[in-house]
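Example record used in the benchmark description.
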Amino acid sequence: MLGDVENRSVSPVFVGRAGELTALTEALSRATAGEPQALLVGGEAGVGKTRLLEEFLGEACAQGAVVAVGGCVEIGADGLPFAPFSTALRALRRTLPDELAAAAQGQEGELARLLPELGDAAGPEPYNEDSTARLFELTVRLLERIATDRTVVLALEDLHWADASTRHLLAYLFRTLHRGRLVVVATYRADDIHRRHPLRPLLAELDRLRTVRRIELPRFTRTEVHRQLTGILAAEPAAALVDDIFRRSDGNAFFVEELVVCQESGCEPGGLSESLRDLLLVRVERLSEDAQKVARIVAEGGSTVEYGLLAAVARLPEDDLIEALRAAVNANILLAVPDGEGYRFRHSLVREAVSDDLLPGERSRLNRRYAEALEADPGLVRADERTTRLASYWYHAHDAAKALPVVLRAAVEARKRHAHAEQMRLLERAMELWDDVPEDVRASLRPIDYAEAYPPCGCPDTTPLRYLDLLAEAAVAARLCGERERALKIVKRALRILDEESDPAMASGGKDPQRAAWFWTERSRLMSNLGRGDGWAELATAQELVRGLPPSAVHAKVLAVAAGWGMLHAPGLESLAAAERAVEYARLVKAEPVELNARLTLGGLMVDAGDIEAGLAEMYAVLDRARELCVRNEAGRAYVNIPSCLEAVGRSRDAVRIALEGLAYSRESGLRDNEGWVLNNLVESQISLGHWDEASEGARRLQRIAYSTKPRAGAHLRRAQLAWLRGELSVTAEHLALARDTYGKHDPMLQYLLPLAQVQLGVAAAQGRIADVRTGLAEAARDGFPTGSQRYAWPLLLVAATAEAEARGLPAAEEGRTEALALIRSYAKRLAAPVPVWQAHALFVAAELARAEGRDDADRWAEVAVALGPLERPYELARARHRWADALLVRGGNRDRATELVREAHVVAVHLGARPLREDLELLAARARLALMAPPAAPAPEPDHEGFGLTPREQDVLRLVAMGRTNRRIAEELFISPKTASVHVSNILAKLGVSGRGEAAALAHRLRLLPEVPA
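Model output (structure tokens):
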């Protein structure tokens, strides 16, 4: 429309920023070498961020990189969902149409939520937290594929205007980008980031990522202002002029340009108002009336206004409009956008100043004109922006009756794009408008979306939309975008409304029990997610509300959620019955996603109840059906639950196979949170199989990628388990504490409480704190072990029984010993052992209890080893062989068989890195003079006649330490000074390689360094 125009106020010379430009070009070089780069460029408005970016992008193009630029769009106070990414992807599609099509192949429907040009967006999916993550994952993968064979620079401008969905996608991109020749550069206005600005938490989060570099642009120095003036004026400026402009601009590059324009236009030195707004408006006020009018219209239209829309709103003859635009562009106030379809202000500060200068009535009138023009000709703007912009225009025109229907349509479009934060904001705006809309307009509105199993409002064609329906949609949107506190407030508000509508004599929600039950179920989920409780009280209320009602989707949902709660908190017949009812109700109302959820829960509960094959078959059937229907959240949940159930029945190798398949599916489907749950279960099974190195790597990765609280805590639990098994007690304690803190105290579940207790007891036993072992077991087993908990309870009892066996003979362990052994035995008698792996554990516990009572028996240990042999539990088998060999040697049994057992166990211990077990085996071999065929990690020392190099006096002191004597008592009994006793104790701890008196006593008894205490 307009040709080249004069930009006299812009310096043709790029001034300063050498260090910043170098940082950007170095990032480009690293990306070209295959290492993706992420950079944030911040600075105050007008400091030169855009000019720096332009210089960098020019250099990138010169080096053959593909450049795609997207800017965050401000429409009034609203940002368009994913605007910068949509714009950048659109630019990539223009530049690399075939390459982008190939990279998006098979996922066009999902990616069309960001780039509508790819085709129709995928059909509506059930609400779930994974849908947004899937879109994000597919976007990252698309960029990585495009950047496989070429360097791509993705520039995102004006993050301070970014909508929540854009911020979330950018954070996801920065966290998960690991390959491809890609540079992502994002700019933001630092002076806008106040304490409560929504970008502030994102910046803090990205600062913690070592892969993201942050560049802050300072203001120009006087020397740099001098160079800028020289470039603008094409002549050496007077020193007085430099001093004056530097003082008044304070080094801000944009203000320098504005002041130069004033100076060149004849303004008297010092005659210009010092206020920022006046400074920015000076050049606008020098335009013709038509040009000023056009500038005001563009300022209120958003960040960019299309020419056709501008013409419709301005209502000027086309020649006059073009002349007005030419004047504004020549004055360096407006710019034609790169695609030639519209105009924007050259600098947002000027746009804001012009907009702020509008009168209230003038602003409303302009927004009404925009809305009327867009309604008259919807093709004036792109389809993906049309509804959102129309909603904003009507809202700012203060026409509630016109705004409400469009705002609701915009909310639905935001949901379809998984822009749940924008959906929530739009729904809150609809709630704000509700009371100002005439009753007849509200009566004409029809429900256009439903939240999950929320009950439809009668006949959609005749039943009007209710305020309660808006609250339901807003609650789900708030939960899905992570605003759980806001979601809980909305749910409470809905329940108050239902209470006010109900008969006082009836239960809460009496007039509308289905909706009340739906909101109570939602409240249960939020209470659990926020760590305010386990959610059962809320679920119980929901169940009571639907009791006796005809089958419905809400009823089925309540039953399904209750059954899922029971599976995690109280597995048993009651939860099994609840799952069966949920399946039945879901089938009656043809709510298949709810049915799949309930069937999966039912299968898990069947496995817990002992109906293993039928339960697993049900779960596999759910997985197949969910994949067939593309119900990704239920397929993802199946990939979490099936490996867990397989591990529970000892089929760890099958669990690993399914979990690996689940990881691939989660990544392919963008189910990033689901990936963390699957990975947690995979690591658990790898530990069982003895794949400890892979498990350690997986636990570290889980710690990096986990989104939800439980998988994040699980990463620490797995690392604590591995560290304990390898004898790294300080590392164990660190991760044990982190796991407890992350799990929290408000939603206790046996599936993590018992493993935490197992590790805690193991550490206490290793440190000789037998009293803590007994206390810990009593606390963990206080409420007994319900159905399905045997997978966690047997290992816990084994740790406790082993600790009692190792502490046998220690005087400090004698008090309460009989009761402790009786307690372990009583729990073991009542605990189910339905499959071979737990039957072997039952034999193991019995053998350790016998050893603790001085009835160690080689035949008993042989039975344990035979039971463990085919189960692919190498660590437990090595421990059993160790005990078997020890029993043979103590009773004078077959030395050749004992040697063979020690060698087999030692090979496993070395391979696993199980240092405590390896050291015990090497000490047993040294004491019994057995030759280890496989070389140990460190040669086993030949003990001298004094044992561990202890002098006779130190052996006397060790005997008293093992009896629990203090240094003063030791000194009295051996007729030495307390100081000398202290020195002996320190020497003993150093020679034994332990850190405390309890560990020294336990080691001395375990290795029989002290006389055997009779049973």
